[in-house]
Amino acid sequence: MKYILLFSIALTILAGCENMEEEISWDTKNIPAKAVVEGSITSDTCYQRIRLTQTADYFLNGPTPRITGADVIVSDGSHTFIFKESDTVPGDYYSTEMFAGIPGNTYSLNVNLKEPIDGISTLTANDQMIQGFIIDSAKVYVYENPFVAFSDEEDKDSTIIVFYMNGNQPKNIVNYYLIQMYRNGVPYFEKLGDMEMMNDEYSEDPEETELVFYYIGDLLVKDTISIELTSVSKEYYEYVRKFKDLLIPPDPLGFSGPPADAVGNINGGKQIGFFYTGQKSRSTAIAQEPENIKETVN
Under a CB-based contact definition with an 8 Å cutoff, are residues 231 and 168 in contact? Predict the structure, then answer.
């Protein structure tokens, strides 16, 4: 494959400057397409979804190619769940029955492709659903962001919310969470790379009955704030963390070093994407001023 780069080179000559156009031909290698898997089993009772796509040329001007006609099954060791391709969205496969993932179970994905992609006909992965914090009740407080006064940024977020969640924490488990928020019913984070993350890896009391989530944003007292905690495996948590790092612009001074690749669990990381499990817990509260107006966020 060849791409032609045209540009002008200005050459200074005795009589003045003359614009000259030179054609340069670059040879670029074709990289074989790879399969991409995006899918999960959650604790919600629903038709679970697996999405199959494939990588495409960098200059593709159109939707990502979908993988159609595949045989997709998920098993927990005792039950096998068959997935059928959507009639309206090619490459999206839904379970033929509604079911909820069970914390503690390990779910295995097996995909047989209709036609091999880069010599691969079978895609496999597995992930264990980890029991997470179950929210019984919650409160949300809105504080003024004390750093706004010291910032020159016009769009500096003006508030800090603190979401206190009371509930049951599993014993002897280190938990890793992805966090989605909803403000007045509207999702606050639109993409995976925007979602917040937290864990209790360094908690002095990993069995505590309260989780506290801080977020800097523009929120108002009396907003309805919902939070969705998704307990995930450490492997998926690290995958998302590295994926988020890839989206951050590189340090211009070079102190941070290059970000690590986000290696998934499809065929042992040889293919792209991640099949994960997630135990979900949700709660909603009305944002309010601190009970003690003099209270500050440390």
Answer: no
Asked whether residue 255 is domain-assigned, the answer is: no
The Cα 127–Cα 77 span in angstroms is 12
Euclidean distance between CA atoms 223 and 6, whole angstroms = 54
275 and 158 within one domain: yes
Nearest-CA neighbor of 237 among 130, 81, 147, 121? 130
Interacting residues of 181 by C-beta distance below 8 A, sequence separation 6+? 187, 188, 189, 196, 215, 225, 226, 227, 228
Residue 205: predicted pLDDT: 63
- Six-digit token string for 181: 């928020």
| Residue 2 binned pLDDT confidence (cut-offs 50, 70, 90) | very low
Structural domain of 148: 134-250+262-288
Distance of CA 85 to the CA centre of its chain: 23
| pTM of the entire predicted model | 0.80
Collapsing DSSP states into helix, strand and coil, what is residue 75?
A: strand
- Residue 96 in this model has a pLDDT that exceeds 80: yes
